[in-house]
Amino acid sequence: MTLFYLKLAITPLLMWAISLASRRWGGLLGGLLAGMPITSGLVMTFLSLEQGTDFALNAVPGALGGLAAVLATYAFYLYATRSLAIGAAAGLAIVFYGLVAYVLTHWGHLYVSIGVALGLIVLLIIASGREPKPETLARVRHRYWEIPLRMVSATALLMITTHLAAWLGPQTSGMLAPIPVIAWPLMVFAHVQNGRAGMAAMVRGNAIGAVGVLAFYLMLSGLMKALGVIPTIVLAMGTAVALTVVLAGLLRGR
């Protein structure tokens, strides 16, 4: 019961904080924060505590396939919105995510997922940097229901994924862990409110943050048996944040 209340408390608070940071400091920072292993870290933590360490470790290959699929979805959306409306592109991108995630987690290989993820990170950083950048972004009107809707959606996905984990199995549970339930609403809202420049900044931040997510899962796979659940997740999260900050700093002038 304690874990249930932790899920209800932590997830919406994180979504609220990231949404406010994105409003205050812009899409790139929002993308960086949303791209870090926040939702996926919570999912893996609760899977480990509720289903056991072996279950969580068996979910890592699926999570890496899901991460590559998430990045493929961003690329799809970035290019699809050049000719399609936002709603149509977002709907097709979600379908595309399901197809790619299924292929990578059921027919792919761990190293294939890692290679695809790294290739897509490079592609997204380059492609987002080539999007037009207006001199100023228009001041937008934020609706009162935006952040509560994001908080509810993020919490619902975490609750559903962890509650159904035993039935879904480790592979599918892992595949669902990286679903960008925080990043997707942020990206679409940024696109609607700030145009392609706002959306591209969010995509770029998510791509940079994905490097940390990749490191997070690899550290879980290599250290959880030796160190235990909580120490490994804390260390992996710290490493993910450090990598994201360093890479963002290196790419800041580009």
TrEMBL record:
Tagged with keyword Transmembrane: yes
Parts of the chain that traverse the membrane: 29-49, 55-77, 84-104, 110-128, 149-169, 175-192, 199-220, 226-251
Top-level taxon of the source organism: Bacteria
Keywords: Membrane, Transmembrane, Transmembrane helix
Full protein name: Permease
